[in-house]
Every structure is written in C-alpha cells, then in structure tokens.
Fold this sequence. Notes:
The protein is α+β, with helices and mostly antiparallel strands. The protein has helices spanning 2-22, 34-44, 80-83, 88-111, 241-247, 252-255; strands at 119-122, 125-128, 134-137, 140-142, 145-147, 150-153, 159-161, 166-174, 178-184, 190-194, 196-199, 206-207, 212-216, 226-232, 238-239.
Amino acid sequence: MTVAAAAGGALVAAGQTVAGALGVPGLGGALPTVEDDYAALAASAMLPVATETRADTTAPAVTSAIGGEQLAQPASLPDLDQTAEVDVASITKAARLGEEAAKVERAISTAMSHGAPQAVLYNDEALVMPTEGRFTSGFGARWGVQHQGIDLAAPIGTPIFALTDGKVVKSGAASGFGMWVVLEHPDGTSTVYGHINRSFVEVGQQVKAGDEIAEVGNRGQSTGPHLHFEVWTADGTKTNPLPYLAERGLDLTDATRGRNA
C-alpha cells in the first residue's frame, strides 16, 4: 500500500507538471498567470523564422579602392554640333587651290617634257624658255641699224622650243636669217626664231608650248652660232622680247647666263 501510494503521488505530480507546462487550468494547483502562459508557449511552440537575405560570408567584402576617390571620371565625347562648326567655304577654297596647283604642275611638266629649260603658266597658257644659251645682244640700235630682237648664243644643234602654242606660218629659207621659223599664236602675237641650223616643223603645223621646232645654227648674217628671237604684236609691230617675256614670268637675261656659246 505504501509503495502504491508513493507511485500514485509521483504520477499526480508528473501530471500536474505537464498540465502546468501546457497551460491547462485546474491541474497542478494554482491557476497560471498570463506571464506563465506566454513563458510556457515560448518554451514549447515552434515559432516561425522571419524570411531575410543572409549575406554570403564566402564572398569578399566590397571595399573602396585606395585613392579611388581621386580617380578621374570617364570623359564624355564632345558633341560636334555643339562645340565646332565646319567651315565649308574654307574646305571648298582649299580643294580649289589644290586643283589649280595640280593644273599648273601638269601644264608646266608637259611644256618641259621635250627638254625646255624653264616653263611658266600665264593666263592659263604655258610659256617656255625658247632655248638654253647666253644672252649676248638686246633689242634696239646696233651697229647703225635697228636690232629687232634679242640674241641667245649657244652651240650649233642646241634645241629651240616653241614659246607657246601656235601654228607654223614660216619654215625655211629667209633673207638675212639664212633659215627661220615663225609661229603665230592664238592671241595674234607671232614669234620669230632666226639663224637656225635645221627646222623640224612645216608650214600649217600646230605646235604646243615646249615642242622642239628647230636647232641653233649660224646661217645668214651671223657672227657666231646663236638664236635670234623676235616678238611681233598682232598688228605686226616688233616689240622688245625682254619686258614682254619678263611680264609673263620668263627672265631670259638671268636664266640663260649659265651656258657658254
């Protein structure tokens, strides 16, 4: 009986303990308080865990670079329309000047392609030095007569070139000159090449500036091999070739002094 009573008392005590833990009133003696209820609930219930993003502890921490605040920010490209204006007029002018320079270069190169010592472009027309020689006599009175041209001394056979484009109006024998060539040019001016040794052109032939038309000789009334060169205006007036050619960019007195007759 004693053992059974002890066992029963133990069972009752255990029941009161469980009932107290579950918050069941009427068991275990005194009624539980509100605080006891919350404490028991917290100890026995599965409370939900709030959903949150946990930091990845395996990833390296992001830190500012040393001196990073001093790094220059990427520069943005300027807007051409807002920062610059294209000068179309200047570009057009430059292109035109380039074309003109190329035109001059082609004309001069063509005029000198047969061996002329110098060439220039005047009013879009090429003119060349008629021969390579030494200036020996000018335009005007000489030995009591009028010398109607200039003389350029050079060895026999030195090439003679057409001053500019023209048509052959005389080629062959000539009084005083022995032999000559006369060219008529588009503006009506004529040029005369006298005392020649040989002519390479025929009457009526069209020639270009720089074409070889004859060679220096010593024919006719001549004191030595040279080219006698004259310029006739459109009305037939014989004019001084030196200022006529100098005005167009050819200085015969300077450019022909480097060669002895």
